[in-house]
Amino acid sequence: MKVSRRQMLILLPAAVVAWESVMAGTPEESPNYKMTDHWWGMLIDITKCIGCGNCVRACSTENDVPDGYFRTWVERYHVNDEDMTQPVVISPDGGKEGFPSVAKEDEGKYFFVPKMCNHCADSPCTQVCPVGATFISPDGVVLVDQKYCLGCAYCVQACPYGCRFINPAKETADKCTLCYHRITQGLTTACCENCPTGARQLADLKDPKDPIHEFLRTHSVQVLKPQMATGAKAFYNGLDGSVR
Amino acid sequence: MSVFKDAGHLFRFAGLFVLAFLIFLVVRHFVVPKSFGEYGHYRGAAMGEIAAHPAKYAGHETCETCHSDIADKKKSGKHAHVNCEACHGAIFMRLPAPEPKPDLYERFVALVSRRIPPDPPLLRHAEDPTSVKPVLPDTAVLCARCHTASAAKPKGFPQVDPAEHSGGLPCQTCHNPHSPGMDASNTAAGGAK
């Protein structure tokens, strides 16, 4: 078969396009994990949190979070009896090494609030990304594509919960992935695995057998900043009205 | 056909537009990643890349495959729901990152490509239990982290003032950390409630 120069000029680019598609392939997924079968969230029980900082340390080890930055952190609230609009909040080094002791005689009430990405169903952070580098995955986890992110930090400003930062080494937006590499393998998140009191529990809202459903039915549960209508999926039990 | 008379220049111009559009399509084909738009306005392959991150906490089930004796001891005690790695640390440990090379070329490449630095290798206790051992935690620090009395902690949680409670003795003198209750196997004097 003789191929003319004209035919060659048409065939060659076509062959390149075909070869590209073959080489690119589709992303490999864990064989037993189907994204459409899950809708992930988190249950945080403030009445159980002792402020030990295990979650913060575990998260930083698991995800190689740089020092001084946090994908999850713990805050200690101090609210005076009659003025809940002015809580005193501390979080020394994200609560990584615990908190100073409080004597019984001290006035007001004290409690710990673990914070992390709320994996909002209508997240403001993914809406502002100009390049499509951050998104809500089909299983309800807000993720950042490190290769696509420009580091413009619009999302860092957009998050009403302050859960994002610019990773100083990668110069891209960084945040809690809900340990996506673990939950897709059937493991729980590093923070839940290491919480000694069970104050944090990973929840799969699409799994009818998940204890989250029973818990949500029988407890007074709240999300942070419900007035923002973010569809937050970090459910807090025993959340005080003073928490911002 | 009189409408198209003297309209040749318009056709040539339209041809240029069509050509530019075709070039745009070809460039777009090569520049936009294959999986972009697979699930939405993002790169679908990113999820696979994020899921490929190595886990360092293997989970208590992994520990229990070998340390079943400890798991049995823990089951009956108050620490039944405290997972192994919560005290012992992750069983996969990162080696310290290698020093960055002072090579001028390497630095130039890193500068222009904004290359994401590779992760240092992992040491795996589960794969090589004899040479890779988690550090035995110091109970004086470890136990105090959770059990030092503070009014900020939930009321029902067992809390002590370590200095007053044991006079500086290490906790495991009286308590077995895997089952800290004071039963027949843990009989030693002291320990104000």
- Global outline of chain A: elongated
Q: What oligomeric state best describes the polypeptide chains here?
A: heterodimer
Overall pLDDT metric of chain B: 82
Show the largest interface.
A-B, 69 and 52 residues
In what order do the strands lie side by side in the largest sheet of chain A?
9-1-11-10
Low-confidence stretches of chain A: none
What share of residues are in beta strands of chain B?
Answer: under 5%
**Percent range for helical residues of chain A?**
10-25%
The tally of strands of chain B reads 2
- Give me the CATH architecture of chain A, please: 2-Layer Sandwich
Shape of chain B: elongated
The end-to-end distance of chain A, rounded to whole angstroms, is 75 Å
Largest sheet of chain A, in brief, is: 4 strands, mixed
- Structural class of chain A comes to alpha+beta
Give the amount of beta strand of chain A, in percent.
Answer: 15-25%
**Mean pLDDT across all residues of chain A, rounded?**
91
Write the layout of secondary structure elements.
The complex is a heterodimer of chains A (244) and B (193).
Chain A lengths: L4 H20 L15 E6 L8 H10 L8 E9 L2 E8 L18 E8 L7 H5 L5 E3 L5 E3 L9 H5 L6 E2 L6 E2 L5 H4 L6 H5 L5 E5 L7 H7 L2 E2 L11 E4 L7
Parallel strand pairs in A: 1-11
Antiparallel strand pairs in A: 1-9, 2-3, 2-4, 5-6, 7-8, 10-11
Chain B lengths: L7 H24 L13 H7 L8 H7 L1 H9 L7 H5 L3 E3 L9 H10 L8 E3 L14 H9 L14 H5 L27
Antiparallel strand pairs in B: 1-2
